[in-house]
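Re: weekly structure request thread

Next one in the queue (409 aa):
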Amino acid sequence: MRHLLLFIIFTISLQSGYAELKDSIPEEGIERVIALNDLAKEFLDSDPDKSREYSIKARDLANALEEYHELSNALNYIGLSYYNQKQYNEAISFFQQASRVSLRLGARDKAGNIFQKIGMSYILLKDYPKAIFYYQQTVRIFEQLEQDDHVAETYFDLGVVYFLAREYSNSINALNSALKFYAKLDNQRGIARTHSQLGTTYEETGNLKEALSHFQQALQIQQLFHNKDQIAFNLNNIGQIYFKLKQLEKSNETLEEALKYCNKNYTELYSKILLNIGKVKFLKRDYKAAENEYNKALVLADSIKNNTLLSDIYHNLYLLHIETNDSRRALESYQKFVTLKDSTAIETPIIQTRIKTEYDDKYGDVYVAIFIVLTAIIIWLTIVIIRIKNQRDKALEILRKHNIDVSND
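Done, posted below.
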């Protein structure tokens, strides 16, 4: 009887602990809207559907209360929940609603950040003209607010979008504007990555001399920070330019140096460097060495399922087998090249920017999210344990009052 009674009390304690956790959301008012938005933010990455459930409730209540700041937040989180599920058109719809509310409030900085998210969504839909429009609006807002750091970042992003749209002249202009603001802020890392992107853009236009100059400037800055992966990245780019200039010895030397700096865990870059070394060996007619480099690159590219890189490797293997009169292997490589090339035609290009979870956040670190979840679990367990202890003490007191023996059997 005593054990049954204690078990019942224990069960009730667990239920009350859970109820207390649920009841931590206020029943009404602005506090409830804020709590719902906080929960929406918390579940954005782990459970977008649950996040959207909370943010829709927050939106409806904020609308009823005419709390427009929290309404804008709720609309933003709804948009982000769709974005995380790759439903970009739906995301854009809610981001646009959030931006309109922010502009009505005069919160132009928030509107600027939302415009950036809309632009990113259009990039992923490959609608570059609309992406450009929203990034232009973002730049204009941040320039008016004199937020030079945001202006620099947005000009850089705009330069990349123009590059994706093959508007190379506009890309160079935007990147030069980014360079000017990064220099004003003495942001050396920003200057370095902008030089890298300018190098890529000039390379695409065929201006190899200008491309080489920018890659070399980026390299000099990265060497100051001893950032090995970025050093390897820029050395690989420089090696490619030397290859295109037919300066094979310089190319090979630079690429071998890149390989020494590159972390093997940076699989994509390591594979690209091996591929480029293979291309140099091929032009030097060292076909056995070239094939060896291609095969090493192939193993790495396959391990990360990078179809674009795999397609490029198979294309070079095809050319090598043609040169060595191995028609069977040439045909095999060509068939794989064509298949992979067709599959990469529908891939979405990667832009060197990130979407922000909050208006003012700069980093979406997964470790922070893990820390928050673990902290929430610890707090919940603490609540449950305290309530169980209190309920147990009360139960024992009741048993004593009724002269029920509570000593150990």
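The chain has a mean pLDDT of 85. The CA atoms of residues 54 and 339 lie 44 Å apart.
Next request, please.
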